[in-house]
Amino acid sequence: LDAEEIDEVVIASVEVAENKETATFTYTDGTTVVLPLYQEKEFALVLDATHIVVNAGETVKIPYTVTGANETTVVDVLATSAGYLASVTAAEVVISIPEPFVVGEVLVWADNAAGKASIRKITFEENAIQVDPVTEVPAAGGDFEIKGVSNVDVVAEVVEGNDWLSVAPAAKADFAPFILKFVATENTGWYGRTATVEIKTTA
User: Fold this and answer.
1) Max intra-chain CA distance, the chain
2) Distinct helix (H) and strand (E) counts, the chain
3) What is the CA radius of gyration of the chain?
4) Is 1 helix (H, G, I), strand (E, B) or coil?
5) DSSP labels for 106-157?
6) DSSP 8-state class, residue 186
7) Mean pLDDT of 137-162
8) What phi and psi, each to the nearest 5 degrees, are found at residue 28?
9) CA distance 175 to 182
10) Is 155 a residue whose pLDDT tops 50?
11) How many CB atoms lie within 10 A of CB 75?
């Protein structure tokens, strides 16, 4: 275009896309130009978990990422409850749980040294399983159940007496109220029989 043509071509309208990623400039001669808009990335610390069921004395590792991080971004951690020990690596938060267990929390934060920070809190709950009293198994055998309450997923294993008692297929229960199913063979003898069942977490 020569100088005279440039003077005659002006922007007639500007339309921003719904996703806010581009803008379309329409000129009076009908031509259009699409230009990308500057997108500032959100700065955020993202943890794989923020509430964890644990056992006393164990060490847990929680992966994390930082979106919108720059070369000056640092991640740090602070255990705010007695007995907890916490540290960070380039990709994980590492926390040692006290023994005996106490309720606690850990703070994790990211700072980009340019005025932006993101803080997250991790809380902990002790693994707990409560089992209802078990009634006697009928001599005729058959199916029966063990009920209970847990804050974790559980499975059952017959550790003694598995010659007459077995865990039903797929005897895995989700947390909260659970029901575990078993199968007993008929007792053809004169004496009673016993079994030991271990109910444990699936982790």
Assistant:
1) 114
2) 1, 18
3) 31
4) coil
5) EEEEEE-SSS-EEEEEEEEEE--EEEPPPPPPPTT-EEEEEEEEESS-EEEE
6) -
7) 84
8) -65, -20
9) 18
10) yes
11) 19
Spatial strand order of the sheet with 11-16 comes to 11-16, 22-27, 32-36
Mean pLDDT of 115-132: 90
Q: Which amino acid is at 179?
A: I
Q: Which residues of 87-109 are buried (b: 16+ CB within 10 A; e: fewer)?
A: ebeeeebebebbeebeebebebb
Beta bridge partners of 92: 63
Cβ atoms 196, 158 nearer than 8 A: yes
Name the more confident of 96 and 189: 96
* C-alpha separations of 12 from 36, 112, 117 in Å: 19, 41, 42
Tokens encoding 133: 């009293």
Enter the DSSP assignment of 3. Answer: H
Residue pair 65/163 in contact by the 8 Å Cβ criterion: no
Tens of pLDDT, residue by residue over 21-72, are: 788 888 888 888 888 876 667 899 999 999 998 989 999 999 999 999 989 9
Token pair for residue 27? 């000129």
Identity at 114, one-letter amino acid code: A
- Cis before 100? omega within 30: yes
Closest CA to 122 of 157, 74, 88: 88
Confidence (pTM): 0.60
Tally Cβ neighbours within 10 Å of residue 112: 17
Contact 72, 116 (CB under 8 A): no
